[in-house]
């Protein structure tokens, strides 16, 4: 299951990033898997955690044995992957579903939008057009604040509730996790912190850092992209 990027405010299920990502995997391992992209609800019309609700609903629908038998996939081997805001969605969905004793086959979070706080990388790369921080800050406000309070500071309790750094990762012990980061990405520092938070919870976590900015890094750093694709192929192999 794939979740697209877009700062939780734009984008849709038919995104080129996801299509290109899975086409690259299929070119290496053949048609041994199927994938679906989720049209989750967006802010500011739909606040956190509505998008997470949508991803959880998609997982439960695809885990239904009757539906899986009808269309031909294995309902006990569902994995979660996303990029940028999509990583935020699949990360929260995995943490929530683990409380219901459902675990993904693996979790792949690329260039994760993980926490609304200020970091050194957000300051250093704030004006790069691939992920400008002024826009990113607006996205967090649109996601977490009420519509009539978009210019006000986000309440601390909402920040903590939404932060993947404060999610309960202990229940996904045994699930392979990959975080893919960009060294010149405004989200780099929170991605490193996310890797550490998940690893500290006792989860087998790998991190791949590509040289470059948000999402573009993997198109520039072909060695890092190859690492990510190889990891996914290993996870998807029968």
Verbal overview:
The protein is α/β, with parallel strands linked by helices. Helix content is 44%, strand content 9%. The protein contains 10 helices and 5 strands; from the N terminus they run βαααβαβαααβαβαα. The protein has helices at 16-29, 50-62, 65-71, 85-98, 120-124, 133-144, 156-162, 188-200, 217-220, 222-236, and strands spanning 2-3, 80-83, 107-110, 177-182, 205-210. It has a 5-stranded parallel sheet, with helices on both faces. 41% of the residues are buried.
Helix count, DSSP H or I runs of 4 or more residues: 10
How widely separated are the two ends? 17 Å
How large is the share of residues in beta strands? 5-15%
Helical fraction equals 40-55%
What's the layout of helices and strands?
Elements: E1 2-3, H1 16-29, H2 50-62, H3 65-71, E2 80-83, H4 85-98, E3 107-110, H5 120-124, H6 133-144, H7 156-162, E4 177-182, H8 188-200, E5 205-210, H9 217-220, H10 222-236
Parallel strand pairs: 1-2, 2-3, 3-4, 4-5
Q: What keyword list fits this structure?
A:
238 residues; alpha/beta; 10 helices
What is the compact description of this entry?
Helices cover 44% and strands 9% of the residues. The chain is α/β, with parallel strands linked by helices. The protein has a 5-stranded parallel sheet with strand order 1-2-3-4-5, sandwiched between helices.
